[in-house]
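User: Here's a chain of 313 residues. Predict its fold as tokens.
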Amino acid sequence: MIVQIEHLRKVYDGKPDVVAVDGIDLSVREGEIFGLLGPNGAGKTTTISICTTRALPSSGRVLIAGMDVVAHPAISRREIGVVPQYNTLDRACTIFENIHFHCLYFGFSRADATARTRELLEQFHLTERAGARPQQLSGGLAQRVQIARAIAHRPKVLFLDEPSAGLDPQSRIALWDAVRALRSQGITVVLTTHYMEEADELCERVAIIDHGKILVEDTPAALKASVGAGKIYELDLHDQKGRVSLPASLGVLDGITAVEQTDTGVRVFAQPVDGLLSEVVRTADPFGLRDLTITEPSLETVFIRLTGRELRE
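Assistant: Prediction complete.
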């Protein structure tokens, strides 16, 4: 395993009752894209901060390529690339200089640093913007520069903390393409996100975290299959008393695997059975059925089943 997290725990000084990370165990295979998924404040960023030597754990340890990041932080940083949540590009430098100086910092000769910088500018389609400054770039372009800079010294693992936060849909898709391309270079990617579609689109495996604990870990497909339903019906009811009595009536229908109360009605988990939708509508009508939406299980569905609350917070 290229990344090993063992019994990791973090309690911040002065806040003994706030456990940011509470006994996490995770392993990431070499060459995979691994996602740490959860709401804001779940412990994702703290975990990444410890992995990248920016924070110290209260207990437990993190190994990167077999190296303990606390015992050997300087050596570990050579194996790590980091793109934090916020833009950290030097606004006084051009795009070329941001990458070039990073190479020099990691011991490249001037000639090698120049060659590596030009290679990355071409790889990330930034050659025409080499002379621009960070404040002249869109959010999507700036994020691509940050990734290019983070892998300039050829790390084994790239940590991306909320990589597409604040990006428009087109920039987000371009960023996903850039992240996928890293796999062909043998770079392992660990990303945090609260966008379910991002984790589903990019990651071979994901772990869902909340309140500093890992709730579940598997492939996106396996996690969605664990819901035990092919369709989800969200029923919005006029009669809110129906939230209590309707589940029993729906639960006896063939193909219904589970029924849950929601703030506005009920959520029905169903298998693909012919005629089931009409039966659900007929059963719900006496309870003042106002609206019905149909979706398929997502990673957010898994999170809601585990915690009873929405993921996007």
